[in-house]
Each structure stands twice: as structure tokens, then as C-alpha cells.
Design a protein that fits this description.
mainly alpha, 7 helices
């Protein structure tokens, strides 16, 4: 992976920096749409918590749409050469917001225990410290690695299954088994990606010191 400080041109190509600074692109719009869907998702999934009829089907449908747009914004950004700094921030931010909001909702509905929420939130705090280190040495956030994407993929499939597991029928038992398998595997990958990210940050910091 190639690293560079914020604002530093690569091979004198200022045009590339202009593209990185773009805001109004279709991939960025898709990422922003995902972020805007987070409060809607929370409202849908928390209806049983407030004593209202379940709207889990709509919540799951919104998660599916979020997963599709997550795939599209990255693919279109690469195909149309519209990779931007804003997109590099919005894309992982949307992933984190959906992950945290879903975990919080599942905890409030007693579908998952508090310790699982703490486990994943601790990882996000750990990553925030890494990003703060990058800023101190003049770098922006690094690209999301494949392990991190795989972790998000597992968790985003686990959450709808855990919602279905709240139904209490035979399908719920099936959903519970596979949902927890994906959730535990996703949590492991989540921390693994954090370890890889930390290794990259340490290399950059060492190179900067030298």
C-alpha cells in the first residue's frame, strides 16, 4: 500500500489531488445516503422496545439497501476514478454508524448481551487513537483493509439474522445459530483489522521519525 501525507502530490500530478478533493460525486452521494438512513433504521428497529408493533422486516430491508449501496459506492468510485477524501471518510463512517446503532438496538431489545457491544466499541476507540496518531504526523485516515471489510460484511449479515432470531419459531433457531456464528467471526476479524491498521500506523510513525 502506498502512503503519503495530506496534500502531498504524487509524481507532481496535481490533477489527482483535484480529484481527491471532489465532493459532489455519485459514490459520495451513495455514502451520504447510507449515513442518512441510520436514524431511520434505529426508529424502525426500536419499535418493539417502545411497545409498538415490530417493523423488523423494514429494518432488515434497509440493512440490505445499505449493503448494496456500500458495494456500489466503492465499485463506482474505482470505475469512474472518483475516489475522494470525503468518500474515504464517509464510507467507513457509515459502516461504523450502522454497526454501532444496530448493536445498541439489539442490546436494548435484549437480543445480544452488553459485553458484545463493549467488545466492538472498544475496538472503535482503539482505532480512534490510531487515527489521532496519523493526524499528529500529518497523514489522513488510511484505506480500509480487506479484513476490515470482511468483518463489516460478517457483522452486517449477522445483525439481520439476530433480528430474525427474536421471532421464537423454527426459523428463529436457525437464524440464531448462523447469526451468532457470523457475529463472533466478524468480531474476531474486526479486531484483526485493527491490529493490521496499527501495524501500518507504527510503520508510518517510524518512517516519519527517521
Amino acid at each position: 500500500m502506498e502512503f503519503r501525507a495530506l496534500g502531498a502530490p504524487v509524481g507532481g500530478r496535481e490533477v489527482e489531488d483535484d480529484r481527491l478533493d471532489q465532493v459532489l460525486t455519485i459514490p459520495n452521494a451513495l455514502s451520504a445516503l447510507r449515513v442518512a438512513g441510520v436514524p431511520v433504521f434505529l426508529w424502525l428497529v426500536l419499535q418493539p422496545y417502545f411497545g409498538n408493533p415490530s417493523l423488523d422486516e423494514w429494518a432488515i430491508a434497509l440493512l440490505v439497501v445499505s449493503g448494496i449501496t456500500d458495494y456500489l459506492d466503492g465499485k463506482l468510485a474505482r470505475r469512474w476514478n472518483q475516489i475522494t477524501r470525503l468518500g474515504q471518510i464517509l464510507d467507513p463512517a457509515a459502516d461504523r454508524l450502522y454497526t454501532i446503532s444496530t448493536l445498541l438496538a439489539l442490546v436494548l431489545r435484549d437480543i445480544i448481551p452488553w459485553w458484545f457491544l463493549v467488545l466492538l466499541l472498544a475496538r472503535d476507540v482503539f482505532m480512534a487513537l490510531n487515527i489521532a496518531t496519523l493526524r499528529r504526523i500529518g497523514y489522513g485516515p488510511l484505506k480500509v483493509n480487506f479484513i476490515g471489510k470482511a468483518a463489516t460484511f460478517n457483522l452486517m449479515y449477522a445483525f439481520p439474522l439476530l433480528l430474525l432470531a427474536d421471532g421464537g419459531d423454527s426459523l428463529a433457531q436457525f437464524a440464531s445459530i448462523f447469526g451468532w456464528a457470523l457475529a463472533i467471526w466478524g468480531a474476531g476479524l474486526y479486531w484483526w483489522s485493527a491490529a493490521l491498521y496499527t501495524t501500518q500506523v507504527r510503520r508510518l510513525r517510524s518512517a516519519t521519525v527517521r
